[in-house]
Design brief:
5 copies of one chain form a homopentamer. Chain A is mainly beta. The first copy, chain A, is built from 1 helix and 6 strands; from the N terminus they run E-E-E-E-E-H-E. At the A-B interface, strand 2, strand 4 and helix 1 of A face strand 5, helix 1 and strand 6 of B. Strand 2 of chain B pairs antiparallel with strand 6 of chain C.
Chain lengths: 88, 88, 88, 88, 88
Amino acid sequence: MIIGTVVGSVFSTRKSEKLIGNKFMIVRPEASMKASGNDLVAIDIIGAGIGEKVLVAQGSAARVGCDMENAPVDAAIVGILDEGQEID
Amino acid sequence: MIIGTVVGSVFSTRKSEKLIGNKFMIVRPEASMKASGNDLVAIDIIGAGIGEKVLVAQGSAARVGCDMENAPVDAAIVGILDEGQEID
Amino acid sequence: MIIGTVVGSVFSTRKSEKLIGNKFMIVRPEASMKASGNDLVAIDIIGAGIGEKVLVAQGSAARVGCDMENAPVDAAIVGILDEGQEID
Amino acid sequence: MIIGTVVGSVFSTRKSEKLIGNKFMIVRPEASMKASGNDLVAIDIIGAGIGEKVLVAQGSAARVGCDMENAPVDAAIVGILDEGQEID
Amino acid sequence: MIIGTVVGSVFSTRKSEKLIGNKFMIVRPEASMKASGNDLVAIDIIGAGIGEKVLVAQGSAARVGCDMENAPVDAAIVGILDEGQEID
């Protein structure tokens, strides 16, 4: 997984029907993390807000591990970090 | 997922028979996104046009999530972004 | 998928028996494509020749989508681009 | 797999219920390794401590290979390197 | 797949029991290959020696294609290149 900060969200009205009901959050990986400098779009099964630091799982884990086995999803917010933790 | 812009398409007459009927769109990831600077080819299950900003799912999500479980597909356009949204 | 040019092939006599009968082609991704500057080795289910531009699928798509579900294959040429198309 | 050093851990109280009971370790890949310069977060099925060099498996291997097939996990510590080995 | 040279091996006594009996080889991708400059650790099902050029499959191919479906393995040596072949 990687740690990143939720920096925004995007809306898509015309999309796969399997994605209906999901929020698409833009996550910015921490500077020390894999993929830093490269935002990604993740669905959110936890309810994270803008500015929160989150754990993101990628690949088949996002689909299978979030009970969306048949949806075209390759990244998901699967945890919100407790506050006050230093990353780096 | 990543956000990119559809910049073109390519044609392939000699291809896996499991790919027949699909359009191959060239998607250019946004500058802030993972894989920026590196185009990729995605099938399109939504009907995106050149210049539209889209959500692209990669890996097994493109296959399993787009009802093409047995096709050699590793990237798919799964949503078109609503207009007027700032990315970055 | 990515677009690349077939630049060569390699031979391996001592290999997984599940790979027997496959050709290993070296594909060089186009300059604009994801993974540009980094060749990869793909099996070829289409019959591409040196110098042809091809579509390459990576990951589980190469295995499952090419009827080689149980073979250790992570990249496959799945289409040959029609001639005369501009990439970039 | 890659080799890295455990440099810390993070806590997440609000997370997928499938992740309850797991420790989230921050692993820093060795300088010579794939993904060097980019930390990642891995669950730990072995019991590694801060400063130990570990083997990390990524992708579906972390899920399926660690008996967590249905959890949103994409990286796992699957071995601790014996001491006194030179990497590089 | 990628082509690399076996440059060493590592030992891990404390590891997932599903990994018992496997050798962990350090493979250095060729300069022209994807992931060049970044070593990776692969299991070896062929019996490659230090200095040999090998084909490495990554991702689920390493697990499923090497009859280790339930092991936490994400890279495997699946072929040894015949000698005398120019790569690059």
